[in-house]
Amino acid sequence: MGGQNAKPITSVSSAGPFRLVYFDVEAAGEKVRLAFCLAGIPFEDKRVKFEEWETLKPKTKYGQLPILQVGDEELYQSTAMLKYVALAAPESGLYPLSDPVKCVRIDEMMGLIADFQNLWAPCFYVAMYPERLGHAGAVDKAVIEKMRTAFVENEMPKFMDFFSKAIGSSFVCGDTPTIADCVLFPQLRYFTRGVADFVPPTCLEPYPLITAYIDRVLSLEPIKKWYDDNAKM
User: Fold this and answer.
1) Which long-range contacts (CB under 8 A, 24 or more apart) does 184-190 make?
2) Are the beta carbons of 184 and 209 closer than 8 angstroms?
3) How far is CA 104 from CA 90, 110, 162, 173, in A?
4) pLDDT tens digits, one per residue of 92-149
5) What is the 3-state composition of the chain as percent helix, strand, coil, each rounded to the nearest 5?
């Protein structure tokens, strides 16, 4: 890992090599991986095993992952990483500084996606880390089921309507992908994978614009290659 003597980054366009350090899951690291893919920037995808984390954690700046290593420098916070990757490949249009209005729209949508993720977070953490929600021990499965079912029934329709109106027949902020898509797509895909108890993988089927969007992103050659290659790992 980098340290106090790390050299500062002086030029985004000439920076590198890039190394993303995260656990062997999608979660917070996936949006950065997808940004690299869409930007056409090679990067090392360093997967940290959970049993390695206890040793690694004290060496990190904030005690968390992901970390983006750029040469001898370290960057933290996935949203900052997304913008950095986009700036490293301005021709990608992932965050077009030449169009400030579009950048504001991208930031607006990423804020909306964060609202959606924040509403889901207690439903997720109640099973894995109940103490974060004030529970002294493991939570009864009936409580988890009630929380997650309520989210799917009450919160998901509202946000799927917001996202559907923004996406239409294209992407989150226009005819080409941006970093907002790098954030939204893996979150939506998560709900279709059947990895969350009491959340049926069919939960997005009532929203045809959303399911069409997922298929559209998956059909992008860099994204298709990414998931094809990782399916073989």
Assistant:
1) 184/109, 184/113, 185/34, 185/213, 185/214, 185/217, 185/223, 186/26, 186/30, 186/31, 186/34, 187/113, 187/116, 187/117, 188/163, 188/213, 188/214, 189/26, 189/214, 190/26
2) no
3) 16, 10, 17, 10
4) 999 999 999 999 999 999 999 999 999 999 999 887 766 666 666 677 899 999 999 9
5) 60, 10, 35
